[in-house]
Amino acid sequence: KEICNLPNRAFNLIVCDPQKREYRGLIKSCPTLQIIPPEKLRLNPFVIHPFLDQRQHIILVTDVLVSEAYLGATSRNFILWLAGELYKQVKTPTLLTLLKAVQSIRAKTKTYRMYDIFLSIENRLQAMLESGVFDCSRGIPLDIFQHRDVVLELDGHQEMVVNFIIAFITRSLYLANVRQGQISGKLRHLLLLEEARDLLQASRNVSDFGESAFNKDLSRIRAAGIGTIITTQEPKSVSPTVRSLAFTKIAFPLNDGADVDFVQESWRLTDEQRDYMFELPPHGQAIVRYGGCPKPFILAVPNRDIEDQPDDQNLKKHWQNSGRSWISI
Fold this sequence. Notes:
Blueprint: E1 12-17, E2 33-36, H1 54-68, H2 73-89, H3 95-107, H4 112-130, H5 142-147, E3 149-153, H6 159-179, E4 189-193, H7 197-200, H8 206-209, H9 213-218, E5 226-230, H10 240-245, E6 248-251, H11 257-267, H12 271-276, E7 285-290, E8 297-300, H13 312-321
Parallel strand pairs: 1-3, 1-4, 2-3, 4-5
Antiparallel strand pairs: 6-7, 7-8
């Protein structure tokens, strides 16, 4: 709420919430905020961005897909080739187009190794298509995420689908800013990632699958004007990449000794400061490690009541009354 109502704000806000629908309660106090429910989210990652050529866009889609679907180098090379062939046959392929092409090739495959690789790709694509998100020819254009305040309600979608959506949007925004020469570090987009335990993939086997697309991009998006606020209830889910890059770390009271040990190491707390975490009240205070301050400090956090959350019908009425009709419910 405070972010949306900042005076002279020069950046847009993108909220990704994979578990709840609480942010829709802010539509009255944050008139710029647009809510996209999970059943209305539609994306076709094969729609070529205007700042990329076909080959560059194929690499973008393939790299994010291979990363978030836990596929290997052979799968990547195959999808790169196949996507190029599909663009020769149709103007704009879809994930369904890709799936059918993989199935057709697998049916003619005689080697067990390639058969298994194609089958793995099929299984991942089928799981993504079951979400309904990619069941479209166009989908929501990237400029919505470039210029508007958006809340993506992602509850009900599989982990792989959520991770792909966030990673694809993040890398697309990064490439757009880089191609347009916007690399001064000035904030242009702020990503608020709720309940990011699955997205961060702290336990990912990097030796087999490489670093996730999102974690890889975290180390470079700041220069392109993309900031992130990442929240999680499980400290151990924070990946080493996030730990090393975070300029500000905020920890609310914890009860588990292992979690407190994690915070002590990452926040560089003394034993006395660590033990004080158990004395904090359950609400209203947090321990902060800020890059511009040599010592950690206590932060008072005011209570904010969650506003009433409108159902889909009232959300539709709100959009109609405010003249925003780019998506319908």
